Amino acid sequence: VQLVESGGGLVQPGGSLRLSCVASGFPFRFYDMNWYRQAPGKERELVAVINNAGAATFYSDSVKGRFTISRDNTKNTVALQMNNLKPEDTAVYYCRGASVWGQGTQVTVSS
């Protein structure tokens, strides 16, 4: 069972990034999937959730209207499109599903 994130990097405020998470080793289409993030010195926080069918989503107040979670059950992938990024979005972003964590991908928003 494995989750592998990609797509992080350095971006200027107001910019965009798209994170991707590829799942393997479990029946992806049956599981809700989540994105979390953890900033330095802070607790890990839930950012977005998508249900197994992709029909329902949830966003934290801090990212609502700027981030979009999506999934492709034919490719076992879940994505997080992040627009209008702010310095406070700087964190390690983690994919989670089926009680498994990915290794994380660093997102840094700075001018």
Principal-axis shape equals globular
- Compute the gyration radius: what is it? 13 Å
Fraction of residues in H or I helices: under 10%
Q: Could you give the distance between the termini?
A: 37 Å
Mean pLDDT: 97
DSSP E strands, number: 11
Order of secondary-structure elements: EEEEEEEEEEE
Total helices: the number is 0
- Major sheet characteristics: 7 strands, mixed
Name the structural class.
mainly beta
Describe the overall structure:
The chain is mostly beta strands. It is built from no helices and 11 strands. It has strands at residues 2-6, 9-11, 17-24, 33-38, 45-50, 57-59, 67-72, 77-82, 91-97, 100-101, 105-109.
Q: Summarize this, please?
A:
The protein is mostly beta strands and 111 residues long. The chain is built from no helices and 11 strands.
Write the layout of secondary structure elements.
Elements: E1 2-6, E2 9-11, E3 17-24, E4 33-38, E5 45-50, E6 57-59, E7 67-72, E8 77-82, E9 91-97, E10 100-101, E11 105-109
Parallel strand pairs: 2-11
Antiparallel strand pairs: 1-3, 3-8, 4-5, 4-9, 5-6, 7-8, 9-10, 9-11
Give keywords.
4-stranded antiparallel beta sheet; single chain; 0% helix; mainly beta; 111 residues
